[in-house]
Amino acid sequence: MNRFDGKIALITGSARGIGKSIARLFADQGAQVVIADIFQEDIDATVQEFTSEGLKAAGYRCNITSEEEVQNMMKDIYQQFNSIDILINNAGITADTLFIRMKKVDWDKVINVNLTGTFICTQKAAKYMMKQRHGKIVNISSVIGFIGNFGQANYAASKGGIIAFTKSVSKELASRNINVNAVAPGFIRTAMTDALPEEIQQKYLENISLKRFGTPEDVGKLVLFLSSEDADYITGQTIIIDGGMI
What we know:
The chain is an alpha/beta fold. The protein has nine helices and seven strands, in the order βαβαβαβαβααβαααβ. 48% of the residues lie in helices and 15% in strands. Helix 1 crosses helix 9, helix 3 (67-81) packs parallel to helix 4 and helix 4 (104-132) runs parallel beside helix 6.
């Protein structure tokens, strides 16, 4: 028997990148995964890839900054599967530039996707989880939410906000047997980080105790743990996964 047999796991921003890796790990462990993203072509490709391997996957195109779209998605998922057991708030964007040059539109869009999107998805999913009297929510933050970063004032604010949001919401939902935690990855190797100049990558590597970059699977394994019964007594926490970087 797999660890997540019979569980419905919704992962936002999961048509590619870290979100896709998290979704695959859940599916490999028996979960019915819901691939939620804004890019329809990537959603279709990921669902096709998973189902062709015998994994259980469904896809929804959803703009997580739209309260109406998220509400409709949650309603459809619940009607189709009769449960929403796990929510992973993974969707996120960057719009990096120096604070002094940052346009308000770049501030707003990062805050809206990363922080407000997490709020909307959590609120709409929690209504079903409260009815069920069980649920696991894991929010993807970042070490940048702790330490800040040059040229990422908007991103740091959004990820720091997720940490505080997680602590508050965990207190409100604990009485309904809903655990809310966050994960703060460090330098994780993805297509985006691979595009960084070699000298920048080496500078990061020098500060990582384990002397390697993390993988999406490293993050995914921690997310799975926090979503499992093994983490039933853990809530309101943000766990850093950075190889000792900070």
